[in-house]
Structures are given as structure tokens and as C-alpha cells.
């Protein structure tokens, strides 16, 4: 009885405290700077909770959904906070660190001279900021139950890293999807005739399906559960593969001989846009053979772009989407500034926001080439290489030029641009009159001996100026399977790009 009374009393006290905190922080009549300060405080509490949750093995689906909601709210809040703090402040001229002192001076000045206008830091906040603050405060007020349940989940064994190193080495923004997939793999299927679990994973090209599955396979829980992990790729190869060799075919990613019980995880990766038909007898016989050949407790993950593969799942399909703009900004900001606070460099932070906004306003034009994620990481790497306003302004000018250069004069629809262009142009930092023409078609390097020695950064900075067509390493993933994305390029002058566009347009009109 005493324990029940203490629990009820504690719940009432927590709710009263949350109510008083939310009521105090939502006081009307605040300036924009005060709203920004309180929003930052509330977001910091959410960020601490999210980081703590990321370090634990959460298996409850409802907890994962709530964590996903917290993460979305955190990303949106920081995106809006940084836009108002840096993008609207004239290259960061507002002194964020001394806003308490400035606000006190403004209030004393206004009280001594009522007719004098308030400074910009004391102007009324926008409705968007107010709504975001109220929304985040509501999340903070309801978060104590989530935190209480969170303590019941075991911690992950990992070394303490800074946020910069953590995001460089870990998959960003896929925690809920990761835990759901691992939970499916470890869950024992109910006994029956069709007890082979199949999880379809669907997503657009370059959304990160292969990297995601590879990350799942590297999880220690998965490696300790399965005696063997087999990877099969390619539609044609799978269709001609002998059904009896499914168990031992493909690439063996992992083998654990210490387990007493044999359980195999088979990864099936489909190529391109090709899918499988509902009445495809070959595919149905393939999975039927898998059920008879694979030992009990085995699982299959099938990935592809076509939604037709969803029909072969024994559980709800997992859909991987591109990260939201707000989540990409959060990732981009951490990659650029690392452990340094952007508030210590307000002018650079303002330029970073402008570069990000400019790039993501044109990302649909060339997202199909390499993918928006790798492009943003390249830009972040160039910014991080030199903390200089002049250098960052040059990058901003290049990003703007790239957007204008790849926009067809007669086409206003970004989707049409993506379909028609076979290449796109990026301006060189060393010579703004020269562009690197990048082909749409690229290849992925598995063997480091086959990877070119030239990187796109060396070409951009003018350290290397190859003649004719050449291949460059566009981006190398820091995550398994550590692919190197290789593009075919050629350096051309600005006049040549106009001539090639006119010739390409004329050829399209004649065809």
C-alpha cells in the first residue's frame, strides 16, 4: 500500500512540475531572442534523451515509435532554431553569446525613452517560432515516462565518442528501422508449415538499402544468433541459380561455428527497377525450396525498389525513405562543425545554413547521379577543411553556380531535368570558368586496387587537372561495405558547356 501511495504521489508531483515548467516557459510577450533561448534549452533536453536512447537496445515497438517522434521533433526544432538564429541575422551579426546583456540594455533604454524603437533582438517572434516552442515544451513535459521506461533497457557496449565521430562511423537516422529489423531476425517464428520468416525492404535507388542491411549484419546480436549470413545479388543470377545451392551459394558474409544450432540468414538483393511478379513461378519455387532446404530458425531479407516484393513477406515490409530536410541539416551541421559550437562562429554558421539551403533547393536535379547524401558529405568535408569566411563564400558561390548551370532554360520541372540530363556540371573552386562534367552512370568499387587514385576534391581544388576523360573517387563510405563511388568526368570550359547543351537540345528536338 505504501509503495502504491508513493508511486501515485510521485506521478502527481512529476505532472505538477511539468505543468509549472511548461507554463513558465510559455509565458507570452517574449522577444524573439528569448524564444530562441528557451527553444534551445528545451531542444537540449530532448537531444539528451534521444542520445541516451540511441545507446540502449530498445525492443519495444511503441518505445521505438516514440523515439522516432522525439527525433523528428528534435530535428525540426534545431532546423528552425538555426534558420532564425543564423539565416535571418545578416551573416550572424547578432551576438548570440551576449543576448542577456543586450536584452537588459534594450529594456532599460526602452523604459527611459518609451518612444524609442526596440532593437532587432527584442522584436516580436514569429508565429512559427511560438508554435515550435509550445510543441517542444509539450514533448518535454510528457517525456518523463519515456525516460523512466528507457532505464529498463540494457546499454550498448561502445567507447564514448564525440557526436562528430559518432555520426561519421554510425548509420544516421535509422535507429528505429535498425531495431525493428534486428527484432524480426531474433524473433522465433511460430511452428508451422511456412515458418521461414521473410522481411521485404523497399526503397528508392541510393536511399541506402545495401548499407542498411550491411549494418544490420554487423550487429553483434545478429552475428551471435546466426551460424551463417549469405548474400545473393542480381535478378538474372538468382533466376538461373540452382535451387539446391541456395543454402551454400552466394557470398558468405559471416560464419559462426561456435553455435550448436544451425540458423542461416539469406540476403537477397534485386537489381535496379526489376521486381518480381505475383505469379512468377520461378520465384515462388525458389522460396518454396528455401523453406525446405534452410534449417529451422533461418530468415530471409529481400531488398529492391519494386513494391512487388512486399507480397512475399511474412511480416510487414520495411520502407526506407530519404531523410527529411531537417534531419539532413542536423547531420550536415555536426559534420561541418564537429565538436565546435556553431554559436562560437556565427558568421560561418550563417554561411553554412545558406550553403545547405542552396544545395537542397537543387538536390532533385542531380540526386540520381550519386545521391544527395554523399554530395552533402563532400560539401561538409570541404567546409571542415578550412574554417575561413572567404573559403566558405567561394563554396557558396560554387553551389549557386552549379544550380544555375544544371537548370535547362526551357524546363522548370526538376523531375524532367533528372530524366533528360545524362550528366551535370560542378564548378571548380580553383577556376570558376571551368566545370567538371560528371556522367550520370557510375560504378561502385569493391576492390581497393581497382579504385582510382584521384578524388573529386583534388580536381575541385585544382591540385590535379587531368586531360580528356578520367575517373575519380566521388565518395567512399565510412560504413560497411565501404563502397567507393566512382564517376567518369571531364574538365570543360564554360563556353563548351553552353555549346554541348545547345547540341544536346537540338538532338533531342530532332529525335
TrEMBL record:
**Top-level taxon in the UniProt lineage:** Eukaryota
* Comp. bias (Polar residues): 105-115
Matching entries from InterPro entries are given as: NB-ARC (IPR002182), P-loop_NTPase (IPR027417)
Report domain NB-ARC positions.
Answer: 193-338
Q: Which GO terms fall under molecular function for this chain's record?
A: ADP binding
Renumbered residue ranges of the record's region Disordered? 98-124
Record protein name field: NB-ARC domain-containing protein
**Organism per entry:** Miscanthus lutarioriparius
Amino acid at each position: 500500500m505504501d509503495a502504491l501511495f508513493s508511486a501515485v504521489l510521485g506521478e502527481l508531483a512529476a505532472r505538477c512540475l511539468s505543468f509549472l515548467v511548461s507554463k513558465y516557459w510559455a509565458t507570452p510577450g517574449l522577444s524573439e531572442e528569448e524564444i530562441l533561448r528557451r527553444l534551445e534549452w528545451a531542444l537540449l533536453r530532448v537531444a539528451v534523451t534521444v542520445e541516451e536512447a540511441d545507446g540502449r537496445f530498445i525492443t519495444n515497438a511503441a518505445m521505438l515509435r516514440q523515439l522516432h517522434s522525439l527525433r523528428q521533433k528534435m530535428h525540426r526544432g534545431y532546423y528552425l532554431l538555426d534558420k532564425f538564429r543564423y539565416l535571418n541575422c545578416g551573416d550572424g551579426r547578432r551576438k548570440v553569446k551576449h543576448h542577456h546583456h543586450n536584452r537588459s540594455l534594450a529594456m532599460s533604454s526602452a523604459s527611459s525613452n518609451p518612444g524609442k524603437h526596440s532593437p532587432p533582438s527584442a522584436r516580436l517572434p514569429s508565429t512559427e517560432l511560438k508554435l515550435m516552442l509550445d510543441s517542444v515544451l509539450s514533448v518535454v513535459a510528457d517525456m518523463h515516462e519515456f525516460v523512466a521506461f528507457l532505464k529498463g533497457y540494457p546499454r550498448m557496449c561502445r567507447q564514448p565518442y564525440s557526436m562528430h565521430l559518432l555520426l561519421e562511423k554510425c548509420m544516421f537516422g535509422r535507429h528505429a528501422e535498425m531495431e525493428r529489423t534486428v527484432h524480426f531476425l531474433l524473433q522465433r517464428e511460430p511452428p508451422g508449415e511456412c515458418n521461414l520468416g521473410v522481411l521485404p525492404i523497399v526503397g528508392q535507388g541510393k536511399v541506402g538499402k545495401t548499407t542498411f542491411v550491411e549494418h544490420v549484419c554487423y550487429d553483434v546480436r545478429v552475428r551471435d544468433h546466426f551460424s551463417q549470413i549469405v548474400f545473393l545479388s542480381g535478378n538474372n543470377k538468382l533466376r538461373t541459380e540452382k535451387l539446391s545451392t541456395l543454402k551454400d551459394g552466394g557470398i558468405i558474409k559471416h560464419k559462426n561455428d561456435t553455435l550448436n544450432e544451425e540458423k542461416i540468414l539469406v540476403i537477397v538483393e534485386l537489381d535496379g527497377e526489376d521486381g518480381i511478379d505475383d505469379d512468377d513461378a520461378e520465384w515462388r519455387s525458389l522460396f518454396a525450396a528455401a523453406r525446405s532446404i534452410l534449417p529451422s530458425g533461418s530468415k530471409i531479407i529481400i531488398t529492391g525498389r519494386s513494391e512487388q516484393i512486399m507480397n512475399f513477406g511474412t511480416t510487414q515490409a520495411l520502407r526506407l525513405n530519404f531523410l527529411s530536410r531537417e534531419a539532413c541539416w542536423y547531420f550536415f551541421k555536426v559534420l561541418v562543425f564537429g565538436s565546435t559550437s556553431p554559436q562560437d562562429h556565427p558568421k560561418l554558421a550563417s554561411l553554412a545554413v545558406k550553403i545547405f539551403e542552396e544545395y537542397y533547393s537543387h538536390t532533385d536535379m542531380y540526386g540520381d547521379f550519386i545521391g544527395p547524401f554523399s554530395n552533402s558529405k563532400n560539401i561538409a568535408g570541404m567546409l571542415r577543411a578550412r574554417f575561413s569566411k572567404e573559403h566558405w563564400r567561394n563554396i557558396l558561390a560554387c553551389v549557386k553556380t552549379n544550380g544555375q548551370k544544371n537548370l535547362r532554360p526551357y524546363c522548370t520541372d526538376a523531375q524532367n531535368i533528372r530524366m533528360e540530363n545524362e550528366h551535370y556540371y560542378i564548378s571548380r573552386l580553383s577556376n570558376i570558368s571551368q566545370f567538371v562534367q560528371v556522367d550520370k552512370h557510375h560504378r561502385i568499387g569493391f576492390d581497393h586496387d581497382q579504385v582510382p587514385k584521384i578524388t573529386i576534391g583534388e580536381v575541385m581544388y585544382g591540385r590535379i587537372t587531368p586531360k580528356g576523360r578520367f575517373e575519380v573517387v566521388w565518395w567512399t563510405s565510412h560504413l560497411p561495405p565501404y563502397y567507393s563511388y566512382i564517376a567518369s568526368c571531364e574538365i570543360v570550359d564554360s563556353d563548351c558547356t553552353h555549346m554541348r547543351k545547345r547540341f544536346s537540345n537540338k538532338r533531342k528536338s530532332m529525335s
